[in-house]
Amino acid sequence: xxxxxxxxxxxxxxxxxxxxxxxxxxxxxxxxxxxxxxxxxxxxxxxxxxxxxxxxxxxxxxxxxxxxxxxxxxxxxxxxxxxxxxxxxxxxxxxxxxxxxxxxxxxxxxxxxxxxxxxxxxxxxxxxxxxxxxxxxxxxxxxxxxxxxxxxxxxxxxxx
Length: 160
Hints:
This protein is mostly helical and 160 residues long. The protein has helices at residues 2-93, 96-125, 131-159.
């Protein structure tokens, strides 16, 4: 019976070694999966960080464009205000008949100026999604104001 016990013992040892090998292989496979998951997570985090960075850069560029547009338009308005003041002074020198019509034109001009101010306030408060529409509205308001001023100035020139 000694031979059978030895054989049984060898089978047990072989089985035990096989179990250890299987456990080692399973551990190595689990470690490899964990490493792959960690790399994937790190890559996803990096991609997410890059997307946020890109979005922040786009937002900064949009804000800069919006601020530059508003500043340039406000500077144009300040120059137009100076020109309006000069027209106001001309009204005082005009005759009574022309003075009433000129004051009407100036009231229209000031109304358009107020409309532009409202548009510029919207520019300051504009969201990215509304920016193009608001920019277009402010540009149109500026164009209307500039045309109205040119018409008023032409009329004043004819009345001088």
